Amino acid sequence: MQTLISHLRLAAARLAVRRALVVAMLSGPILGAMLAFGAVAAQDATNVITIDNFTFTPPELTVALGTTVKWVNHDDIPHLVVNKDKVFRSKALDTDDSFSYTFASAGTFDYFCALHPHMVGKVIVK
Amino acid sequence: MSKKGFDDRGQGLGRREVLECMVWAGTGVLWTVSGGVPHSVGMIGDALAAEPKGFTFLQMSDSHIGFDKAANPDALGTLREAIAKVKAMPMKPSFIIHTGDITHLSKPAEFDNAEKAFGETGVQIHYVPGEHDLIDEERGKAYLERYGKGSKGAGWYSFDDHGIHFIGLVNVVDLKGGGLGNLGAEQLAWLEADLKDKSSSTPIVVFAHIPLQVVYKEWGWGTEDGTQALALLKRFGSVTVLNGHIHQLAQKVEGNMTFHTALSTAFPQPAPGSAPSPGPMLVPADKLRTLLGLSTVTVVQGNKPLAIIDKTLAG
User: Are residues A41 and A52 in the same domain?
Assistant: First the structure.
């Protein structure tokens, strides 16, 4: 690790890309935790579901009838939010694109990414 | 690099490890078909030096034209570099198989740019779509209008060349929540009918975007009903499965079947489970081209297998 760090330190002096990588490697877990915390806080205020690292956060969101929920994609790869029962479907969301849907009926709405279907989430409307 | 989805079944230092080392050393793999079974014959330099005799074709994948993020701000530029390598090959491949994700967002300009770049090869290209090629508002119309001629359903088809039966499958449509890639009942029925009159000695090459076998379920790297397709192919003496999607080399031989995934020409993705997500892997700029590339398959009629050589842009 020591060798790696010193190697990267040398490289970072030359390459901004490498510097970013070092930061990501060394602070990844802390940064990830901070981002996750931030997402939860934002969701409380505005009912936002974020997409980071191929994951919907929060994975399960409970809202009142008539609430508008917004999905925001922070990944470098497009995602496409689609309800299992085809009640709603976004366009392909490129980086920082968002999709909003207003829930006009109560129930549980399972959704997934139509491009990466292992990504799943749920909105519960009461 | 210790984690790869394909299991080598304890064969010691297998082809997988050797291939991995080659990848990371910045070289690649070229495919040769000898007597029907594909084989990797070594690094591209060796293969070119050996001047493979017979019929060769190339696999290219995951061009992602339109991708401009940090992992590679110029995906069209790296595709052009790959095309230049194709043009410089001493023996031109008979054709190119593109295993999907031609574009990043299915935009007309992205398809145009890709078509222009690939057109420079002067070689016929057989495409199958990746999920990134079907995200126009009309959900695949843009792709099918360009490349769907003569195909069935979402774009699947087959053709014969040099005694080999080639089958292009589409496993990126109508995906189910929580699931993997999907072929669907209609396509499987078509495949069964397509293979019905083929003799078991016919060499088969199947190509599709997402790996037909499960490489890493947690990241969706596999095809839900892929085993049904493979069951239909089991009776054939030589089956080669070429896939893309995972932007890295993985190879596995199982009985008469050889599985191979190609490098992307746009950006690398992490080894299964080695990162929080399968998203684009950011590598130092001087390393990028060692993780991008293409594969050549050489077919020699006779009693030897197909050989596959993967070539990186740095190699």
Answer: no
- Residue A33 predicted with pLDDT over 90: no
Phi, psi of B18 (to 5 degrees): -60, -45
Q: Is the pTM of this model over 0.90?
A: no
Query: Per the structure, how many domains does chain A have?
Result: 2
Same domain? For A38 and A73 the reply is no
CA-to-CA separations, B46 to A80, B40, B135, B293, in angstroms, rounded:
43, 11, 40, 16
Residue B34: pLDDT band by 50, 70, 90 thresholds? low
The answer to whether A31 faces chain B, any CB pair under 8 Å, is no
Three-state SS at A45: helix
Could you tell me if residue B16 is inside a domain?
A: no
Number of domains in chain B: 1
Question: Are A55 and A7 part of one and the same domain?
Answer: no
Confidence of residue B301 (pLDDT cuts 50, 70, 90): low
- What is the overall mean pLDDT for chain B? 85
From the DSSP assignment, how many helices (H) and strands (E) are in chain B? 8, 13
Question: What residues of chain B, 134 to 153, have a C-beta less than 8 Å from chain A?
Answer: 135, 137
Looking at per-residue pLDDT, the higher value among A33 and B240 belongs to B240
ipTM comes to 0.83
Q: What is the mean pLDDT of residues A10-33?
A: 42
Buried b (16+ CB within 10 A) or exposed e, B276-291: ebbbbbbbeeeebbbb
Whether residue A96 is found in the same domain as residue A75: yes
Q: What is the residue range of A30's domain?
A: 1-45
- CA separation for the pair B274, B119 (Å, rounded): 37
Identity of the residue in A20, A32, A114 whose CB atom sits nearest the CB atom of B276: A32
Percent of chain B having pLDDT more than 90? 70
Residues A113 and A56 in one domain: yes
Contact B284 A11 (CB under 8 A): yes
Q: Where residue B193 falls among pLDDT bands split at 50, 70, 90?
A: very high
One domain, residues A22 and A62: no
* A31 and A51 both lie in a single domain: no
Q: Is residue B204 part of a domain?
A: yes
Enclosing domain of residue B184: 57-298
**Whole-angstrom distance, CA of residue B51 vs CA of residue B309:** 12
- Whether the pLDDT of residue A109 is over 50: the answer is yes
Which amino acid is residue B216, in one-letter code?
Y
Coil, helix or strand for A18? helix
